[in-house]
Design goal:
Elements lengths: L1 H24 L17 E3 L3 E8 L5 E8 L7 E6 L4 E4 L10 E8 L5 E11 L5 E11 L24
Parallel strand pairs: 2-8
Antiparallel strand pairs: 1-3, 3-6, 4-7, 5-6, 7-8
Length: 164
């Protein structure tokens, strides 16, 4: 009987000790908050959206977003990424000093016919570290369809004849 009591107490102590050790090993979750830097760089764009309007298939799909560093520290753009492979940004790799201007060039591949809205996401050391630029427009099929990537139906709308 003493052995059963001894085993029961030992198991209870071991289970309780194991539970406490697990609870102590778990660290509380921490959230890193970006401190506001009153001297941080600040990126100010002339326009954050470029509307191509209607352009022809195969036309030059390049546009430019001009900006100014209106903050007090040098602006460093660490990355610029298009929302898909048809939107390719080019950005300055060197720091933009206080009061200086720069530009982000974006090339859209106009092979695809139809309406489009694409984005370019910038990452930088500015007060708002992420900025999204937008391009939009409509690509109209060109008259010369020898280089087209998608078929275009060229019928007068009449039904096809059924030959029996």
């Amino acid at each position: 009987m003493k052995t059963v009591k001894y085993l029961a107490i030992s198991c209870a102590l071991l289970l309780g000790a194991g539970h406490n050790a697990t609870a102590q090993d778990v660290a509380p979750a921490t959230v890193e908050v970006k401190a506001d830097n009153p001297n941080a760089a600040e990126i100010t764009f002339e326009n954050e959206t470029h509307d191509y309007g209607t352009i022809k298939q195969g036309a030059d799909g390049t546009c430019e977003f001009k900006f100014k560093n209106t903050g007090k520290e040098p602006l460093i753009i660490s990355n610029a990424k298009g929302s898909c492979g048809c939107t390719v940004p080019t950005w300055p790799k060197e720091p933009i000093m206080k009061g200086q201007t720069g530009s982000i060039k974006v090339h859209y591949d106009t092979k695809r016919v139809g309406a489009f809205t694409k984005t370019v996401t910038l990452n930088s050391n500015a007060k708002s570290d992420t900025k999204v630029l937008t391009i939009k427009g409509v690509v109209e099929a060109s008259e010369d369809n020898s280089d087209q990537t998608m078929p275009i139906k060229k019928t007068s709308g009449l039904p096809l004849e059924n030959s029996k």
